[in-house]
Amino acid sequence: MEKRKLSFWQIWNMSFGFLGIQFGFALQGGFMSRIFQTLGAGKEDIPLLWIAAPLTGLLVQPIIGYMSDRTWSVKWGRRRPYFLIGAILSSIALFLVPNSPALWVAAGFLWILDASINISMEPFRALVADKLPESQRSYGFVVQTLIIGIGTWIASNLPWMVSQLGVSNVAESGVVPMSVKVAFAIGAFVFLASILYTVFTTDEYPPENMEEFEREKVKKNNFIPDILNNIGSMPLTMKKLGIIQFFSWFAFFTMWSLANPALTEHVYRSPAPIETDYNMQDLAQKDAFVVANTKFQESSNLVGSSMGIYGLSSMAFALLLTLYTSKRNINRKYVHMFSLIAGGAGFLLMNTASPESLKYCFVLIGISWGSILSMPYAMLSSSVDPKKMGVIMGIFNMFIVIPQIMAALGGINYVSSLIGEEAINAMTVAGVSLIIAGLCNLLITNKKAIRYQEEI
User: Which sequence ranges are marked TM in the entry (predicted)?
Assistant: First the structure.
């Protein structure tokens, strides 16, 4: 099927739902560890509590990709039903997470939240490849990244913003502050509203041959053998991209799970107080705990705001790429390589950062984030069968979630402990991992993946 080129606003409409998805991911990534610490988790326990996120991605994304490849509704299309289902579930989970009465409840809600976000997210990746001709793939994924950057920056600053409006940032021991609860409620609304916008402003191409589509849908109804077959036959370029993804996502999972304890302790000198270290029956000791906890909550807001900078810089980076790729082709390989190395440098510089200079570290990290959300998918979509785009994108997610599972099961704690006991060592590990990911781009040799050319 000959796909027509779309205008900027048509691509914007089809990608706008990612604003809500990124609200969900940014609130989860920026503040879930804070919620865990508030509910009593030690910093060494946090990576394992985060295991819900990659495990649900590993299970959900290939299934949703497989199902969406075999879905067609004249009214709702192929990918949009999954956007909507995931949005409804995610919005409910976002509202409930900060109201968790205990640590195990919060961990359980994280499972539900991440699974729901993944239901919406995977079809969005496939939609870009479904809708756009190959010459616009880089452009499409970069516009998507621009919207993700906007969502990351706003959502990461929400607790700080609402506290500036007078919402309390102080709470009793074991209770999440109202500023965080209000921020998550806003995120729930934005998630659903932005997905609805895309659902009602975007249509989809029907299968090229409806009779063949129906036959294939009936014939290929065995999920596990089909997934295993697609894994076994994945293109060489996809495997090489998988290596890059492995080190990239090990780094970012380390940031999401441990940046708050690392930076509140190392940069802001306000680590989370441990209640058992205080005699809560003694009024002076109880007051000291409240003061320490308030400082931790305030510094956590500042860490979240600093993390939001990586969304802002990824947005600026994506905007530059959008302007460039709207008229020209780019060398995806070298753009991605240098972007990842820049992010690695940002993590390493956190060792010497002050509260004032921390934002510059996240500017560099944002450049790598902007590239991670666009370049691998643009390279992959030029290397695979378009009829299998949904399931391939779901399988490609394995290279995202496996390193996160390894990190959660002790990989971060083990590797960072080789350097020392300080929490900031986790950010050093993230930096080295991201630089390795950048250098692995030298493995990519497929010319079509590196740079789309009309004559290919």
Answer: 12-36, 48-68, 80-97, 103-121, 141-162, 182-200, 241-259, 302-322, 334-351, 357-379, 391-412, 424-444
